[in-house]
Specification:
By secondary structure, this protein is mainly beta. It has 6 helices and 25 strands. Helix content is about 10%, strand content about 40%. Strands 12, 13, 14, 15 and 16 form a 5-stranded antiparallel sheet that branches. It has a 4-stranded antiparallel sheet with strand order 3-2-1-25. The chain has a 4-stranded antiparallel sheet with strand order 4-5-6-7, with no helix packed on it.
């Protein structure tokens, strides 16, 4: 009998183990430490997550809120089992679970200078955050809660001295390079009534290179609203709600649409919205992903946002395939829809509290979770090893010890 275990078989087994367990396995031996941290193994584990080969690692949700009383930004990971009321309310005793079968409170390593961060997006277990709410701060981070590592990006290169606004996007290209896209609109004239100039400047941060680089000859003929923008990463492309100024129209000053950025060839183009949404103010629209489809949440009756509808693009890239799935009559103080659920009920914010609202019965289920209204957001999440072994630039203290 021999103690020899073929490395190929070991990789086959370990690459199907949840990432949270693999982080603890780093302490087993030097050989396991080297294997699990190797780029090839991290890539193999990610592939298995995407293929659904690791139970519980790809069907997760990341919930973020800003606790007003404690003045802390809080994150919770829980299974996407369409029962948020149970998942969000669970008690978590420790962090030694092998897979995400319970909700998990994640210790957050950053402190915003303005309260809480903008959650730009999530992709392959990475969370992109920007410290730019209510201020001109531009710190951008990539954070992997599973491996407890956070990387602060270098300062952007585009920083005009005159008035400007910016938009961020986060995703990955076909070669596995994670990119942060930054669109900057400038206005050299100080008159606040003038539009920003077109086209804007664009720069891209590549995780593979560690640098920002500018994109020349940008073809963007629309504006993305500053402050309240949202993004959706789908089919290798980033999407933002944008708008074009119109003239000589019947009381409709803008035309709303979707600006799309292709991660592979780094080009921009536009996707038309259905007529019902084109004439709506861009601030009343939010782009997202619903059940693997590009979607738009639209708030109607701008004065009080009395109802909200969910539109999906049945055939990606085909504007004629836009379909309205749900229309939810909002009431009882509900101000913001955080997530549409499969049964047409919604996770929503009512007076700074997260609730589940059933539009069929008008019943509201309180979840016992309060926070700043704009801070509530839910993103799809996966447990991966991306960023494992990279130098933690944002958090210098050695407070993340594996296995705790």
């Amino acid at each position: 009998m021999t103690d020899y275990f073929p490395e190929e078989l070991l990789i086959e087994i370990l690459s199907r183990v949840p990432a949270k367990s693999l982080v603890r396995f780093l302490l087993v031996s030097k050989s396991w430490y080297s294997l699990i941290r190797s780029p090839s193994f991290i890539t193999t584990q990610l592939k298995n997550v995407r293929l659904g080969e690791i139970p519980g690692s790809s069907s997760l949700l990341l919930l973020r809120r800003f606790n007003i009383l404690g003045k802390i930004e809080q994150f919770i990971i829980y299974p996407d089992d369409n029962d948020e009321s149970e998942a969000v309310g669970r008690e978590v005793d420790d962090m030694d679970m092998d897979s995400a079968t319970k909700s998990t409170d994640v210790e957050f390593p950053l402190k915003s200078i303005v309260g809480y961060h903008r959650l730009v997006g999530t992709c392959d277990g990475l969370v992109c955050l920007a410290d730019d709410f209510f201020s001109r701060a531009r710190a951008v981070y990539l954070w992997n809660p599973t491996v407890r590592n956070c990387l602060e990006l270098p300062s952007p290169t585009i920083d005009p001295s005159f008035p400007h606004s910016w938009v961020l996007g986060f995703g990955v290209d076909i070669l596995g390079d994670y990119k942060v896209v930054r669109i900057v609109y400038g206005r050299e004239d100080l008159d606040p009534d003038l539009d920003y100039s077109l086209p804007p400047w664009v720069e891209i941060f590549s995780l593979n290179t560690g640098f920002w680089r500018r994109i020349e000859n940008v073809s963007i003929n629309s504006y993305v609203t500053d402050f309240k923008w949202s993004q959706a990463f789908l089919n290798g492309a980033l999407h933002w709600i944008s708008y074009c100024r119109l003239s000589n129209t019947d009381g409709v000053p803008v035309s709303s649409l979707i600006l799309r950025f292709h991660m592979d060839d780094e080009s921009f183009n536009e996707i038309n919205l259905p007529h019902e949404l084109t004439c709506m103010p861009p601030l009343d629209l939010a782009v997202s992903v619903y059940e693997g489809l590009l979607s738009v949440i639209a708030y109607h009756s701008a004065e009080n946002r009395s109802n909200c509808s969910l539109w999906v693009m049945r055939r990606y890239g085909v504007s004629e395939s836009w379909t309205r799935l749900f229309t939810v009559q909002l009431g009882e103080g509900i101000e913001k829809v955080v997530r549409f659920r499969k049964n047409s009920s919604v996770l929503a914010v009512r007076r700074d509290e997260l609730v589940i609202f059933d539009p069929k019965t008008s019943e509201i289920q309180e979840l016992g979770m309060c926070g700043a209204k704009r801070s509530f957001c839910i993103n799809n999440f996966e447990e991966t090893l991306i960023l494992l072994g990279r130098q933690n630039v944002a958090v210098e203290e050695e407070r993340w010890r594996w296995g705790e």
